[in-house]
Amino acid sequence: MQSANNGALCEWRKFGLLPVAAALGYASCVIHIYGLGVYIEPIAKDFGWSRAAMTVGMTLSTVIQALCAIPIGLAVDRFGPRPLALFGVILTCAAFANISTATGSDGNWYLLWILMSLCSLPIQATIWTSAVASRFTASRGLALAVALCGASVALIVFPWLGAELIQSYGWRQAMRIEALIWVCVAWPIVFFLFRGAQDRQKGEPKAANVFSAALTGVDLKYGLKSSIFWRLFLVALLFTFGTIGLNVHFPLVLKGYGFSPVAAAGLASLIGWFSIPGRLLTGMMLDRFRASLVGAAAFLLPAIAAAILLYGGGSMLSIGLAAAMIGFTLGAEVDVLVFLTSRYFGLKSFGALYGGILAALSIGTAFGPLFAARVFDLSGNYNTFLAATAVMMVLSSLALASLPRPQPELYEGPASV
Q1: 1 exposure class (CB count in 10 Å sphere: 0-12, 13-18, 19+)
Q2: Minimum mean pLDDT among 14-18, 98-102, 205-209, 267-271: which range?
Q3: Tens digits of per-residue pLDDT, 332-371?
Q4: Which of 281, 274, 406 is closest to 328 using CA atoms?
Q5: Which of 335, 240, 277, 279 shows the shortest CA–CA distance to 343?
Q6: Could you tell me where the beta strands, DSSP code E, fall in 237-387?
Q7: Architecture in CATH for domain 216-410
């Protein structure tokens, strides 16, 4: 234990700013997702669109991300994460600003979102997590948790910043200013602080030991044949299908219990706030306990939350408890999947293999909320969706609990120190 603690301290002393830079970079890749909400109403009002029509662009973007996840992962394995990150942050912010040029036609709107999705591909989660995983072994869980807190930063910063700018400048100018502000904040930090073991510094030989050690692990073909990979794929798909759908529709579920929009928004915000301690606590637990069992326990929480929403009576206390459970697991979800992918398969083909997991996450994110909306349209309530979510989360938990212990030789080595 003392040796592990010393290794973790050594990693943080040498590379402690890398997860922070990765967090800001990761926030950049979701500016169009977490930042869109405050723009929906003014854009819909300007163009006379329904809110459903507004969100089709996001669904289209997520599907494209799913289709391209493995090729992007292969690019990370081939070229390293740094060049993709530096190029992608600028492209993504520029594409977000470009949405402000929308004309009101469906074709133009879809084209803008296709461009948005393509520009954000170089900075998907695989880029940031692969660099952090290559530098941290003893404290990999906590380091990944810090990096993935970028999603929580985005959830807190982008809606607030967008709303303030819209109030002062209107939605078109607000998008441009928000994109400019964020690229000025994130890009310099990524430039100076973001460098994984795969990214050679100037003058460093190509065959540097640290680079070779970072490639320890199985090849892509072996990984794709493994039942472990497909269990993780299933977990990712079921989790996001149920829990992201629940997250998106949570305020509307509360409306069915008679909460006002303000009260519903306040309770729903607990999901975002609890995702931060959920992410950090899970990261620390992953470093200390068997990761598959930590994930199995965390992934049961949304099943309990769905049961509370179905049978808890709709009190503020029960709703708040459900929101906290959902938020905690949302904070844990990517951390668990990234950590397990690196532990079971090593880093040699991590980008491509995690790209496959990311594809499952994207598919669930794209269609879970749509499924929830369809259930409500047909039945007038979310009860069937809540029950289905509970079942999916139990199955996810069981799939994680069934995983064997990973092989230490795939992830232990000198690359992290």
Answers
A1: exposed
A2: 205-209
A3: 777 888 889 888 888 788 888 888 898 888 888 878 887 8
A4: 274
A5: 335
A6: none
A7: Up-down Bundle (1.20)
Q: For residue 201, is it left (φ>0), alpha (ψ between -120 and 50) or beta?
A: beta
User: Residue 346 carries which DSSP code?
Assistant: B
Query: Domain residue spans in the chain?
Result: 1-215, 216-410
When the pLDDT of each residue in the chain is averaged and rounded to a whole number, the result is 84
The stretch 170-180 carries a mean pLDDT of 95
Contact (CB, 8 A) for 335 and 128 = no
- Rounded to two decimals, the pTM is 0.73
Please state, in angstroms and rounded to a whole number, the distance separating the CA atoms of residues 166 and 155: 17
* Phi, psi torsion values for 223, nearest 5 degrees: -60, -45
| 217 contacts 45 by C-beta, under 8 angstroms | no
For residues 138 and 414, what is the distance between their CA atoms, to the nearest angstrom?
A: 11
| Contact status, residue 335 vs residue 145, Cβ threshold 8 Å | yes
Which superfamily does 1-215 belong to? MFS general substrate transporter like domains (1.20.1250.20)
- Of the chain, the end-to-end C-alpha distance in Å amounts to 17
pLDDT in tens, 367-407: 888 788 788 878 888 899 999 999 999 999 999 999 998 77
> 37-47 vs 150-169: helix axis angle to the nearest 10?
40
Select from 400, 370, 416 the least CA-distant residue to 11: 416
